[in-house]
Amino acid sequence: MSLFGDNIIYKGNLEHGKRHGQGYLHDKIKRCLYEGEFQDDKMHGQGKYTFLNLPKDNVFEGKFINDEPEDAEGFNNIKNPRDLEKEAAELLRKQQEEQEMLLLMEQQKKKGKKGKK
């Protein structure tokens, strides 16, 4: 197992300190998994890319070239993984905003109860 920074875990082949050959990558910040072929530290060749924070349509299988899918039509979903990455970030942002709003409402509710006493 290799760590690439604090948030990326990689299990697989290395060549000259770079991911190369078969491997498994878990990116904790992007919340994604990739299992497949690497070349020169990039997803390259056959692979499976999974987003962990999307509710559906989150698995892509196919050929990658330099970290990008070769043919979006060859995937389980037509969307490019990079586009879904943006959607996942937006979904996470909205969830955080909702949590902050609920917390604020709860704090205001508590203040209102203290003012009535």
Topology (SSEs and partners):
Elements: E1 2-3, E2 8-15, E3 18-27, E4 32-39, E5 42-51, E6 59-65, E7 68-69, H1 81-116
Antiparallel strand pairs: 1-2, 2-3, 3-4, 4-5, 5-6, 6-7
What report would you give on this structure?
- The protein is α+β, with helices and mostly antiparallel strands and 117 residues long.
- 31% of the residues lie in helices and 40% in strands.
- It has a seven-stranded antiparallel sheet with strand order 1-2-3-4-5-6-7, with helices on one face.
- Strand 3 (18-27) and strand 4 (32-39) form a beta hairpin.
- The radius of gyration is 20 Å and the shape is elongated.
- The mean pLDDT is 82.
Short description:
The chain is of the alpha+beta class and 117 residues long. Helices cover 31% and strands 40% of the residues. The protein has one domain (2-116).
Features:
117 residues; alpha+beta
Mean pLDDT level: 82
Q: What is the 3D form?
A: elongated
User: Roughly what fraction of the amino acids lie in strands?
Assistant: 35-45%
Q: What letter string, H or E per element, gives the SSE order?
A: EEEEEEEH
| Strands, total number | 7
Radius of gyration: 20 Å
Percent helix:
25-40%
Task: Work out the count of structural domains.
Answer: 1
Largest sheet: 7 strands, antiparallel
Measured between the Cα atoms of the first and last residue, the distance is 59 Å
- Low-confidence stretches are none
* Alpha-beta classification: alpha+beta
Q: Count every helix, treating DSSP H or I runs of 4 or more residues as helices.
A: 1
Strand order of the largest sheet: 1-2-3-4-5-6-7
